[in-house]
Amino acid sequence: MAALTRWHVGAWTTRGTRVGEPLEAGRKRTPDELNFDVVGLARILGRRLSGREELQVRLWQNELRPTHTRLCGVHTLADPDNARLLRATVEEALAWLGERAPAGYEFVLTDAVELQPILDLDAEVVAVDAVIQLAGTNLPAARLAASHVRRSAAGDWYAGDATCNWSGPHETADAAVAVVQTARDELADQLVAAGRPDLAATAPRWPAVPVEPPAPHG
Q1: Is 207 exposed, middle or buried (0-12, 13-18, 19+ CB in 10 A)?
Q2: Alpha-carbon dihedral sign for residues 53, 58, 63, 68
Q3: Count of CB atoms within 10 A of residue 41's CB?
């Protein structure tokens, strides 16, 4: 089983309305549309389906997938049995995703599929994001300490989150990782200064700085 190497904390799908809530056309997915997005997310991330399952996904897509001419937040499956099959397939997709969450994190279905840090200080692996969340105070080193390292199309290396670069460019991945590790050391010191030595003490169990492989060419 391989954990995901390209990841970010937060929502991984478009948000949807919960069952029984008023629909928000054009803003949020219907429950069926959200369920279809969950199945699609696992498929995009590498979950393999049989030929029959692929055909079923295409049939759901015809009913549910918004396009530039079809508004989201209005489409539902007409057949209740078909909707139940989709919900069952969602459970399988979530289980598949859960097995591949990065160490210290878990996938949770709220009104979207979200990757969240596991808030258990006794866990074998404690994510830096979990420590920051539990600290509940402003820590100057937090942003860079929680960064991962990725390579740009130009070949330079940066440390940042899913949307922003907080450090770089660096010539090598190791140089970018070193910057993040320094920020983690500073974070541990800041946690002690903030009166949370219990959080700082988890530092030996923080996961290695995530490094995304270069994007494939072609």
Answers
A1: middle
A2: positive
A3: 19
Widest CA span of the chain, in angstroms? 59
Residue 216: per-residue pLDDT:
44
pLDDT for residue 146: 95
6-25 as b/e, with b when 16 or more CB fall inside 10 Å? Answer: ebebeebbbbbbeeeeebee
Distance CA 50, CA 30 (A): 26
Mean pLDDT across 80-102: 95
pLDDT in tens, 33-80: 999 999 999 999 999 999 999 999 999 999 998 776 778 999 999 999
**Which amino acid type is present at position 11?**
A
173 contacts 151 by C-beta, under 8 angstroms: yes
